[in-house]
Amino acid sequence: MPDDLILYTNPMSRGRIARWMLEEVSEPYRTEVLDFGTTMKAPAYLAVNPMGKVPALKHNGVVITEAAAICTYLADAFPQKKLNVPVGDPRRGPYLKWLFFGPSCFEPAVVDRAAPRKEEARRAMLGYGDFDTAMNVVAKAVEKGPWILGDQFTAADVVIGSNVRWGTMFKLVPPRPEFAAYSERIAARPAAQRAEAKDKELGAK
Fewer CB within a 10 Å sphere, N or C end of the chain? Predict the structure, then answer.
């Protein structure tokens, strides 16, 4: 397996997002599986990602961390796969918006709902505002379909779709028909199926 693309991950982590994106790209890659309490905190991996967390991607010696950044990078690195919106296309703005919305609004809203504060934070203090608004914005974006930008599936769907599926699985997002239909379309993608099978196999070891 060539070493020009290396995924550092754990099957029970946000590394699943990066793996799905790699499967969509369909380029050969090698997987380095790390343990949360040991190898992820070891000097060898901290030299890759000083945060001591996954995922991380190494591409021809360049290290990219953070799942949404990895998805954005891969989409731009392999434009022939048509998973990005190129610079100069007016859709690039909405595309970038959704890539950032996932980790900065949708996921924090869901995590805060799962582990609530002792005292509710003021809306203006939270980057996502409030839970219901964040959910409504995403639901409206995916209701027409098939994908978040319309007919083109992009890295933004990997980021947002992963969050929607994860939140739905753990019953942390509202059981809305828009989310259910979007999750079904994602689950039907061969790349998503391959990624899930690989992570499931790793998780069973």
Answer: C
pTM, rounded to two decimals: 0.94
pLDDT for 8: 98
Taking 60 as the threshold, does the pLDDT of residue 158 lie above it? yes
In three-state secondary structure terms, 58 is: strand
Topology given in CATH for the domain delimited by 92-190:
Glutathione S-transferase Yfyf (Class Pi); Chain A, domain 2 (1.20.1050)
Q: Which CATH number fits domain 5-82: 3.40.30.10, 1.20.1740.10, 3.30.1330.50, 1.20.1440.230?
A: 3.40.30.10
The SS3 assignment for 147 reads strand
- The C-alpha atoms of residue 192 and residue 112 are separated, in whole angstroms, by 27
pLDDT in tens, 21-55: 999 999 999 999 999 999 999 999 999 999 999 99
Determine the Cα–Cα distance for residues 28 and 179; give it in Å rounded to an integer.
31
pLDDT of residue 1: 43
